[in-house]
Amino acid sequence: MDDRRESTIVGSASAIILAGGRGARMGQPKATLRFGEVTLIERTVSELARAFDDIVVVAAPESEAIELPPLGAATIVHDDDAYQGPVGALARGLRAARHELAFACSCDLPMLRAEVAVWMLSLVGEFDAVLPQVDGRLQPLHAAYRRRCAGALDAMLARGEHRLSAVADAMSARIVPDAEYRRADPDALSCLNINTPEDYVRAMKRRLSS
Predict the structure, then answer these.
(1) Helix boundaries (H) for the chain
(2) 66-101 b/e with 16+ CB inside 10 Å = b?
(3) Dihedral sign, CA of 49, 52, 56, 58?
(4) Span 177-202, pLDDT tens digits
(5) What is the tens place of the pLDDT at every residue in 135-157?
(6) Where are the domains of the chain?
(7) How far apart are CA 181 and CA 187, in angstroms?
(8) In Å, how far are 60, 92, 154, 158, 182 from 95, measured between CA atoms?
(9) Please, what CATH class does the domain formed by 14-209 belong to?
């Protein structure tokens, strides 16, 4: 825990962290990668706990789940099917969330900042979701959703759509353009994710130089 200012929206929104992936390109599950003295999942939970009183971690089905470290007050729920992608996992997390609004992310964002998550939630307004577009790529796992989006995600799966990037067309979504997003996160580090060993090395170097 650092001395950055606490969010003012504690108690009004949930945070959902998807942690059920195999990490095929990484060669191991990313949730339990070490990042300094803690694992990535511990770091993500700790960071979001500064701003959210309800944190839901979506893990693989119990028969397939990796052993996660103690995660404090976070609620751990399990996918129904192993390694079926993030669409169903996000729907599962939204249904488990206590609040109407939720920030959803993957567990592999080592530079995630709670303030950026809170800012995106402030943009929801009448929309179902708020998704940033950074460097030309939509970021559906660094985004804000209403809990009712679970139904739209179910409908996507029913028609065979497993790409989470398709959520922008499946619900009323506000796309935050790159320039606007960078006013809150100038270097876009909060949505920098780790997919490969090379990404991991670069993230560790950033950590040591920051």
Answers:
(1) 40-48, 86-96, 114-121, 149-158, 167-170, 178-184, 197-209
(2) eebeebeebbbbbbeeeeebbbbbbbbbbebbebeb
(3) negative
(4) 999 999 999 999 999 888 787 887 88
(5) 999 999 999 999 999 999 999 99
(6) 14-209
(7) 10
(8) 16, 5, 11, 17, 30
(9) alpha beta
For residue 24, the one-letter residue type is A
What contacts 24+ positions apart, CB below 8 Å, involve 66-70? 66/29, 66/31, 66/32, 67/32, 68/19, 68/31, 68/32, 68/41, 69/32, 69/38, 69/39, 69/41, 69/42
Give me 148's structure tokens.
């009712």
- Region label for 138, one of left (φ > 0), alpha (ψ between -120 and 50) or beta (otherwise): beta
| CA separation for the pair 103, 71 (Å, rounded) | 18
Residues 6+ apart with CB under 8 A from 69: 32, 38, 39, 41, 42
Q: What is the CA radius of gyration of the chain?
A: 16
DSSP 148-182: THHHHHHHHHHTT---GGGHHHHS-EEEE-HHHHH
Structure tokens at 45: 């939970």
Q: Which two tokens stand for residue 112?
A: 């995630």
Q: What is the model's pTM? A: 0.89
